[in-house]
Design goal:
The protein has about 280 residues and is mostly helical. It has twelve helices and no strands. It has one domain. The longest helix has about 35 residues. The protein is elongated.
Length: about 280
């Protein structure tokens, strides 16, 4: 696709007419610019740096202050591994969720404000293709740049500190929980973009769900089982090979997946009915 954004003629199903070209456009906006490697360095450095601090700097400091958790964990190395794993999967999951909202808040809103959405829909493009192409391209960036790359560095650091490979099955299980949480907030951001044409309400609702969720759930416990607010803790337990309390794993995972699907369906229906 040229810089003029002229759409190329491609044979595809009528229901998803224009998807291939729109998906290519969205990918070009990331992988064809420096955005991807800047974010790759940022997220890998931020999350990897926190892990290194937990592995090598925190344990000696905790031991010097007589922290009993060091002895309970089995020494400085074991304590560092435990803290690094918890920080990556608990704090990291929340950080990635916030990053998803901030990075993709403009996915639909910016183009609606500039008039590009109206121009694109004037072409032979199905409205559902517009929404789904943005979802698929954004999901690819989230999985590769915000999750996979930092996770690779984290796994390497944990394995080096442990002196052997960190249990890959448990680590991948925790990573899967992080993916579910990230997809929830990506689809939430997407559906909000179909309802609002400005950033403040979108950011207020989405960031409020991330930052205020646990506070709200502390007063209304059942919310923990129908929202992703428990997932950071669940991911940490799974990654550490620790038992997850009964009723804590599957309800939040399943409902988060269901919410994500519902968000996509609502976004499609809303966008179909929106006048430009």
């Amino acid at each position: 696709m040229g810089t003029s954004l002229d759409l190329e003629r491609i044979k595809e199903r009528r229901a998803l007419r224009g998807f291939t070209n729109l998906f290519r456009k969205e990918n070009q906006a990331w992988w064809g610019t420096r955005r991807w490697w800047i974010n790759a360095i940022l997220w890998s450095g931020m999350l990897g740096g926190l892990v290194l601090v937990m592995l090598y700097i925190l344990p000696p400091l905790a031991a010097a202050t007589g922290d009993p958790n060091v002895a309970e964990a089995g020494g400085q190395a074991a304590f560092g591994l435990l803290m690094a794993q918890q920080v990556f999967f608990e704090l990291g999951t929340l950080a990635v969720a916030i990053g998803v909202i901030v990075l993709f808040q403009d996915t639909i809103v910016n183009e609606r404000q500039s008039g590009l959405t109206e121009w694109l829909l004037a072409k032979p493009v199905a409205r559902r293709s517009y929404v789904l192409s943005k979802l698929c391209a954004s999901l690819l960036v989230v999985l590769a740049v915000l999750i996979a790359l930092p996770a690779l560095f984290t796994y390497m650091f944990l394995s080096v500190r442990a002196g052997s490979f960190f249990p890959p099955g448990a680590f991948l299980g925790g990573l899967g929980v992080m993916v579910v949480n990230s997809v929830f907030y990506l689809t939430l951001t997407l559906v909000l973009g179909t309802f609002f044409t400005t950033r403040p309400p979108l950011l207020g609702i989405a960031l409020g769900a991330v930052l205020g969720g646990n506070l709200l759930a502390s007063f209304i416990k059942p919310l923990l089982y129908v929202t992703p607010w428990m997932l950071p803790k669940v991911g940490s337990l799974v990654a550490g090979g620790q038992p997850v309390p009964d009723g804590m794993l599957w309800p939040s995972l399943i409902t988060s997946v269901v919410w994500s699907i519902l968000f996509v369906l609502v976004a499609l229906m809303k966008f179909e009915r929106t006048e430009f």
